[in-house]
Design goal:
Rossmann fold; globular; two-stranded parallel sheet; single chain; alpha/beta; binds magnesium ion; 3 domains; Helicase, Ruva Protein, domain 3; 319 residues; binds adenosine-5'-diphosphate
Length: 319
Amino acid sequence: MNYPFNAFRKGDISSNELIRQMIVFETTSQSQSQSEKPFISKEQDIQSLDNLLEELNELIGLKKVKVLVNEMIAYTEMQQIRRNAGLQSAPLVLHMIFKGNPGTGKTTIARLLGKIFCAMGILKKGHLIEIERADLVGEYIGHTAQKVKQQVKDALGGILFIDEAYSLARGGEKDFGKEAIDALVKAMEDHKDELILILAGYMEEMDEFLQINPGLQSRFPIHIDFEDYTIEELIDISELMVEQKEYVLSKSAKAKLYSLLASKKKRDGINSGNARLVRNLIEKAIRKQAVRLRHKSIYTRDDLMILLRNDFDFTEGEN
Ligand SMILES: Nc1ncnc2c1ncn2[C@@H]1O[C@H](COP(=O)(O)OP(=O)(O)O)[C@@H](O)[C@H]1O
Ligand SMILES: [Mg+2]
């Protein structure tokens, strides 16, 4: 059977069509055991997987992430189908490491992956529990195990996402962080079919953390690097954000935003390709626009929507 996968990758057929064709293969396959459940049975699941993949691909930038995520999804699908076809399949270990600066889309992708794996039938719920050190590390003996247990319990059926994961290893000898790591490793084993664990944080810190804890590295087969956004990508993201809020950027406002981002990049270098910064700038501009409009007695629908250059005039230190 020649899977129509290449056609899907090239965009010639939709993921809906791909999955349909794969199901046809599965139900006609000689080697399929009758007792095995079909890979995806409900029309609504197929539909929502299609929508979610579209949502992923519509995100601005993240090119390498999208390629890798698409590959991972395809691989996971194929392993399930191979298993159902009686072929050898690799175990689906989907614990991941996300490396990148703040605001590069790590949480956004994790949330979407939860939904995608849920639509694929790999996770029961697909929700995201996002936590950090303080949510896991306790203050007295026994406290940490209890905290980790609770977080794992809340995350079952979904994704447990630990931001700045290396901070677990930073407390020194008497710290309970190490205990949290051990408890997490145990939970990964105990609940390997019910939970995906994602450790996230800055690139260098994550690398160092994994080097110090070599046992961890092998438990996380998927590593995804989130690069800083370019200024052009940040502008696209800002347009998407204002559109979602039913605002628009005037041409000169866009130019002003561009120069704000460019000077920030020049000043700060690292950590300037940050979509959260863009979100904050837009929210600030929206507040400034509100104040500006309040001083006018009449305004049109367009006035209510448009963000002008002046709305992005922030005083020093404000951005
Ligand atoms: N590629 C993108 N397209 C549109 N919005 C994005 C994109 N990446 C990030 N954002 C937005 O930027 C903000 C920060 O993203 P987030 O995923 O929280 O980053 P991180 O977890 O890496 O700090 C969120 O509001 C998110 O919606
Ligand atoms: Mg985040």
